[in-house]
Every structure is written in C-alpha cells, then in structure tokens.
Amino acid sequence: MNHLKRWRFWRRFFVSLFAALGVFSAVAGLVSLFVGTLEAEQAWVVWPCLIIAIGFGLWRAWPRPVEAAFSAPNTTIKVVRGDLFEQDTHLVVGTCDTFDMRSPQISPRSVQGIYLSRKWRGDADGLDAAIDVHLAKLVSIGTVAKTGRTARFELGTVVPLESHGTRDFFVAYTSMDVHNKAHGTADGLWLSLGNLWASVRRHSNGEALSIPVLGGGQSGLSPVLPAEDAIRFIALSYIIAARQSPVCHELRIVALPELYDRLNHLELQAFLSGLARA
Comparing 7-11, 47-51, 95-99, 234-238, which segment has the lowest mean pLDDT? Predict the structure, then answer.
C-alpha cells in the first residue's frame, strides 16, 4: 500500500476522476438540453456517476505489474517480485573480480552464496572447477594477497556457465581487496553490464534472462545507486545494447519481496514506458 503515499498515484487518480466527472457532466448537459433538467427525485443518478468516477480513477492510478514491451527491438523488460532462483530463465549472478563463491569470503545470504547452496548443493569445489574452465581461457591481471581465490580478472569479465539446463552468467562488477571486502563503482557496473549483454547475446539463444538488482549487499554501491536507480541503470543499459543488436526476448529484473514492496512502482513504470516511447 506504499503507493498511496506517492504523489504520482494521487495526481493520476484525480486527473482520471475529474476526466470521468467531465464526461458525465457533458452527458448531463446534453440530456438537459434535449430532455429537460432532472427533477429532484431523479437526482439519485448523481451518486452512481460519482462512484463510477471514483472507481475509474482508482483503476487508472492503481499500480500494475511493472513492465514495458518494446517493438524496436522486440523485447520486454519486467520488474518481478520473487526469488531469482525460481525463475524459469537463464540467470545473472553478480560477483567480484576474483570470482570467490564460498564462505567466509562470500556471505551465505548473498546471491553467490545462495547460488552455491541451491544450484550446486554446496559443492564449492565443483563450482570453482566449472568456473576455472572458463577463466583458464583468460589472462588474469594480477593477484591480491587475501584468503580464498587470489587471481584477479578484468572488471566486466563474464563467465557463461551451463548449469542444470540453463546458462548462468557470472559477471565481475566489483573488486575484492585484501580484507575480502568488495568495492564497486557506477562506471564499473556500466562497463560490466555492457559485457554481460554481449555474452548473453552470444550464449542465450535469445531466451529470457533474469537478473537481480545489482549494486546492493556488499558491493558498496547502495549509497550511489539505491535500488530504484539500480533498476533504471540496468534497464537503460539493456535497452541501449538491445537497440544495437538483439540480446534476448525478455529481461526480468528480480527483486526480493521485501525490496519490491518498497519500490515506487508508478515511477518505475513511468521510466520503462518512457524508454518504450523513446
């Protein structure tokens, strides 16, 4: 019910309410012109008209699923309430430039930690080995003296990992320091998203892709990119890439229920609709 606190909701409600009342007033004017003014005992019709106008205003202003369909390119962007790992799509997993995937370097409650637990049943050695198959084809840019994985790879490195019938895209958008603390920047995230879409374009066969709201958690980006701005950032980066060359037929930006319920759905819908009209 947070949308009831939003100015956009009430502005849209009152605009629609008065538009409906205007229509009823015009109809009443025509009736009075040809039939005559309503008698006092007929004034009850005003109340149904008012109720209908209020209902119309609420219907127009009430938030709907946050999504937008694009014709050029032919794709859809959706902001989805739910669990990333319950989506029937390819997945994106944000990670650091050392591709650490296990505790204590990575929190078990992070996307990487949940991925390891749910998709690899805690088999950290197996996941590391699968990632290393791809990283072996790349040249590291140095090392960092810390516990866990120490080889660094360029920011924006993407590992497209096949797992249980889907393609899971690991994108390194933060740097890990000697204390196993991740650091991210908006520039680094933008670069990483560009590389991600290019990898998805090559490996997803155009199928739907789900991505979490990157920038929260331990990345250190929350003060720079709060959740709603991060969603706009992801959507804008995606549509720019998709207009250059198709990426996939649907992008789902998945927010956990507690985060989704705090979002300003009307503002996000207005942003996506603006992109669709651009």
Answer: 7-11
CATH of domain 66-277: 3.40.220.10
What is the reported pLDDT for 41?
47
The region that residue 192 occupies, defined by phi over 0 for left and psi between -120 and 50 for alpha, beta otherwise, is alpha
Q: Closest Cα partner for 60 from 114, 20, 88, 22?
A: 20
What is the Cα–Cα distance from 7 to 11, expressed in whole angstroms? 6
3-state percent helix, strand, coil for the chain, nearest multiple of 5: 50, 20, 35
- Looking at residue 37, its pLDDT comes to 57
Q: Which residue has the tokens 């960092």?
A: 144
Residue 42 has pLDDT above 60, yes or no: no
Q: Domain locations in the chain?
A: 2-61, 66-277
